[in-house]
Amino acid sequence: MTEIEQRFFDLTNEQRRRGRLVPLVEAEALSTAARRHSQDMLRRRFFAHVNPDRKTHADRINAVLRWTAPESAENLWMRSGTMTAAGLAKVVDQAIAQLMASAHHRANIMSRRFGHLGIGVALTASEIRVTQLFARFER
User: Fold this and answer.
1) Cα separation of 37 and 132, whole Å?
2) What HEC string does the chain produce?
3) Average pLDDT, the chain
4) Which among 105, 110, 103, 94 is positioned nearest to 23, based on CA atoms?
């Protein structure tokens, strides 16, 4: 996990702690799927839960897992504009605040159904795409 992905992960769990919820566990496979989606959105210049090939977050998760995640959800966030390395921490803070201000995104972050989280970030000097993948695993 990159430093910025770790900050997203930590701040997501901080929100859960504030809500007296169990922290989510990082799942490497979810992070891989999330990172690939963020990179794909940046490379192909789109921002959506369904990619141009009609693949959903469930398709992306199942592509990297050896078992099924019966419940899953995805949050996306993006920003355009100049970003400096020093300013990235502030960007993450803003992203989490905006996600928490959205009822749907907040519901995913605060859901008791999920136990695992993967974060994927793709960025250039002027754009950032973030994917949060939440899941409950059954083997």
Assistant:
1) 10
2) CCHHHHHHHHHHHHHHHHCCCCCCEECHHHHHHHHHHHHHHHHHCCCCCCCCCCCCHHHHHHHHCCCCCCEEEEEEEEEECCCCCCCHHHHHHHHHHHHHHCHHHHHHHHCCCCCEEEEEEEECCCEEEEEEEEEECCC
3) 92
4) 110
pLDDT digits (tens, 9 = 90+) for 84-113: 777 888 899 999 999 999 999 999 999 999
Two tokens, residue 127? 């754009």
Q: What is the pTM of this model?
A: 0.93
